[in-house]
Amino acid sequence: MFVFICFVWGTTWLAMKIGISTVSPGVFAGLRWAVAGAVLLILRHLQCRRIMPPPRLVPRLLLVSVLMITLNQVIQLYALKLVSAGLAAVISSALTPIALLAFSVATGQERFNPRQAGAILVGIGGVLVLFGPKALAGTLDGWEVAGAAGITTGCLCYCCGSVMTRPIMRTLEPVHLAGITGLTGGLILLAAALAVEPGASESIRFHWGWPAFLAWLYLLIPGALLSTTMYFLLVRDWGPSRPGAYAFISPVIAVAIGCVFFDEKLDWGDAAGMLLMLAGAGMALHRIPASARPRRDSRVKYERLRAKRLVSAGPYPK
């Protein structure tokens, strides 16, 4: 399952680039997420499980859906028209764990520590290496910078919404939450696209051509439904940090496929900047092994057992 996730999430950027070359981005993404959310909720209904959320959660769910799906998708898809799929994958994968940490600290869900500061500094260093030499030489492409800024903005919207979902998951199961946010955000994005996006009314007629339609199906079935379910299973069986290692593998796959099949260029400076950004992501994802953590919980348990006279009297064994 882990290998499947790494490959699929490493190639979704390429599928997006194929799709938006002929289909308006709002319609392309809105239909995908609305259908994916509807499928998840229908499966829950067939299992006789709850569909509607508690009314008190509706405002937060609406905000989360707009951040994670509507804004994230439309900003990133338009930005993808300006940058390569490989660069978009690296920026998104490297920034996501760092931004999640930053928003978690800002909302009081985690404490700030030197490792997190180092991760942010390394990530910033990667951005400077990636774009700094071109800026100093006066050859920096302004459209490429705008595209990278769009990918970053969309990623920040997604991460902010993700942190806001943590209190919701005390009430809703993750798959239930994914179904609601996907359907809600997708419908809002689709409605907005039909109202204001150029070419949306033509795109909704599904005159896409086979490449775009196959790319949409790839994003829907392996990219959204299968990979998301597998990711939840890995989080359940491995814990939250180990599945996050996909952030180091998926961008490599995206860059390699982009260079081989789409003639995307990559020089040594770009590679160095990308590696630094991924190193920052690695520092953000790293967790102290359980064997190296203080044995406070074990000591508390020992003291309680000794108080109940279930273990022999004496100091806590070193």
Question: Keyphrases for this structure?
Answer:
globular; disordered C terminus
Protein architecture, described:
This protein is mainly α. The chain has one domain. The protein is built from twelve helices and no strands. It is globular, with a radius of gyration of 22 Å. The two termini are 40 Å apart. Mean pLDDT is 79; it is low at 288-296 and 310-318.
Shape: globular
- Return the domain count: 1
Helix residue percentage: over 70%
| Helix segment tally | 12
The average pLDDT value, as a whole number, equals 79
Strand content: under 5%
Question: Could you write a compact summary of the structure shown?
Answer:
It contains 12 helices and no strands. It is mainly alpha-helical.
Topology:
Blueprint: H1 2-20, H2 25-46, H3 58-80, H4 85-106, H5 114-137, H6 142-168, H7 174-196, H8 200-203, H9 210-238, H10 246-261, H11 268-285, H12 296-307
Helix pairs in contact: 1-4, 1-9, 1-10, 2-3, 2-7, 2-9, 3-6, 3-7, 4-5, 4-6, 4-10, 4-11, 5-11
